[in-house]
Amino acid sequence: MHKKIVLLSHSKLITDGLKEMIDQMNQSEQVEVLSLGGTSTGELGSDPMQLIDAINSSSESDAFLVFADLGSAVMSAEMAKDMIEESQQARYYLVDAPLVEGAFAAAITASVTDDIDKIISEAKISGKKGWS
């Protein structure tokens, strides 16, 4: 199974930097990171159509694990899910985890397993630093 880690932020610089970091650590051909920060015109903001276009141009077996930073990016991710086909929705996961830590943990976990529940679980616990 091919897994796509989708990075949504109001800033393309943020998602590009995070993609670069994940790509340096993850060498699996089964995991691809998509940097979808900002709007389609390069402005600050979020754009659900970028995500829909990425899904529509993908393979029918790709799984999408979507990570977002702030409220309207989350809303864009939710809106995109509502706008795609039911068959695509079944492979679309909105992951309630920190953008940086969660996406990184998901990408590394996805490189060794196809278990979506395990990938999401690792992403969700990734933000717990354990500092006392």
From TrEMBL:
One of its GO terms (molecular function) is phosphoenolpyruvate-glycerone phosphotransferase activity. Keywords: Transferase. The keyword Transferase applies. It catalyses: dihydroxyacetone + phosphoenolpyruvate = dihydroxyacetone phosphate + pyruvate. GO terms for biological process: glycerol catabolic process; phosphoenolpyruvate-dependent sugar phosphotransferase system. Its EC number is 2.7.1.121. GO terms for cellular component: membrane. Pfam families: EIIA-man. Residues 2-131 form the PTS EIIA type-4 domain. The keyword Transferase applies. Gene3D superfamilies: Phosphotransferase system, mannose-type IIA component (3.40.50.510). SUPFAM superfamilies: PTS system fructose IIA component-like. NCBIfam families: dha_pts (TIGR02364). Homodimer. The dihydroxyacetone kinase complex is composed of a homodimer of DhaM, a homodimer of DhaK and the subunit DhaL. Component of the dihydroxyacetone kinase complex, which is responsible for the phosphoenolpyruvate (PEP)-dependent phosphorylation of dihydroxyacetone. DhaM serves as the phosphoryl donor. Is phosphorylated by phosphoenolpyruvate in an EI- and HPr-dependent reaction, and a phosphorelay system on histidine residues finally leads to phosphoryl transfer to DhaL and dihydroxyacetone. PANTHER family: PEP-DEPENDENT DIHYDROXYACETONE KINASE, PHOSPHORYL DONOR SUBUNIT DHAM. This is phosphoenolpyruvate--glycerone phosphotransferase. It comes from Vagococcus vulneris.
